[in-house]
Specification:
By secondary structure, the chain is mainly beta. 0% of the residues lie in helices and 55% in strands.
Length: 117
């Protein structure tokens, strides 16, 4: 299993966290693989140490792979969770009240976005 945290909006526009698992299947000497996930594009990003982005929605459905640092995401209901390098997020709150993201470690943080169809 591969763990991903999904951020999504409900019918009222409030954002929530959901822990989801991606199944992996044995693939012999190359390890265990998931089914192919369709993707639209890849974006590389670096943010300043002071990054603190007030409530916003995701611009599109996308995976975010955190490469380093540590962030805090807050939902519209005030629930906060921390994520660090190596964590994967699935951002699906493209409508509604959005979420807030801020750096917890004062470094230039790098991440990769994989946009979805």
């Amino acid at each position: 299993m591969f763990s991903v945290t999904k951020v999504y909006s409900d019918a009222n526009g409030d954002s929530h966290f959901e822990d989801v698992s991606i199944d992996l299947k044995e693939a012999g000497t190359i390890g265990r693989l998931s089914e192919t996930q369709p993707a639209k594009g890849v974006i590389f990003r670096e943010v300043e140490p002071s990054y603190d982005f007030d409530f916003h929605t995701a611009p599109q459905k996308q995976y975010i792979i955190l490469l380093d640092g540590e962030i805090e995401i807050e939902t519209s209901l005030g629930i906060k969770r921390s994520f660090k390098g190596g964590d994967i997020l699935l951002m699906e709150d493209i409508e509604g009240k959005g979420h807030r993201t801020r750096n917890l470690t004062p470094i230039r943080r790098k991440s990769i976005f994989i946009t979805l169809p």
